[in-house]
Specification:
Elements lengths: L1 H12 L3 H13 L2 H9 L4 H6 L1 H8 L21 E8 L2 E8 L1 H15 E4 L3 H4 L11 H16 L8 E5 L6 H14 L4 E5 H10 L6 H9 L3 E5 L8 H18 L3 E5 L3 H9 L8 H14 E5 L8
Helix pairs in contact: 2-5, 6-9, 8-9, 11-12, 12-14, 13-14
Length: about 300
Amino acid sequence: MKKINEALGKMKASPGFNEQYEQTKREVLSDKTVQSFIKEHELGEKEVARAMGKLYEYTTQSHNCGKCPSLDGCINVMAGFEPELAMRYKAVELDYKRCSRKIRDDEMKHLRRHVKSLYMPGDVLKATFAQVELDNRSRLSAVSTAKDFVDGYKLGETSKGLYIHGKFGVGKSFLFGAIANELAEKHIASMIVYFPEFVREMKQSLSDQSTGAKVEAVKSAPVLMIDDIGAETMSSWIRDDILGTILQHRMLEGLPVLFTSNFNYAELEHHLTHSQRGESEALKAARIMERIKYLTVPVEMAGANRRQ
């Protein structure tokens, strides 16, 4: 309201105020919404004169975001809110409601409260199923399976996750973002972890003894999504004490875990068998794979490399 009062104050202080006022009044009263409001409430000249400040405030602001380039560039008295004319106690008032951009911005902030991510790019965290290209049968099947998981999952119920595998750049991580956002719409929190970076942090956390707390946060997430497993440099400690501990807890608690990988089940088992020291531990790798297979359904995702 301060901006409106300042405008009217400058108008009154300037020469030719009456002419300016009459011109402004004609512009305000030419507004179709104002005309309909006056007619609906049968306002006379005196009532219209008393309400001119409110009517002027209404007409000079943006409606349906028509005058605003963006939410940050909103011209209205209250950014993100647009006025509506209302009649209360025989006086014209303005009610402010959220504009469509403000509603969407609030919805996205709400989603972000439900989606916790570690080391994931911003475009992935804004993904939706509608944005995933369905240009081949495997991608259509992958999206359909992902939607079935989201639609069928309920907190507190045991549900198998997904193991989405395919070549580089086919959109596996992007599909993860869409799953996370759809879950957030159902008020279900999820955590997305880019596994290679998570592995590096686990190694670094040995110095400040924060490993246990970080593993606890990951293994207890309502829905855990491990992105790009197999791209990390594997060690026996990461495989057995970190990944193994996380998977064992989620098995026992019936908590879903989803993966993306460039490897299928057999290729990932080969990766887990050979540590960075050149050790070959087939039995331990098989034990991890048994947990992954128990927790997930394999989903292949093929197509062209979207990163090129």
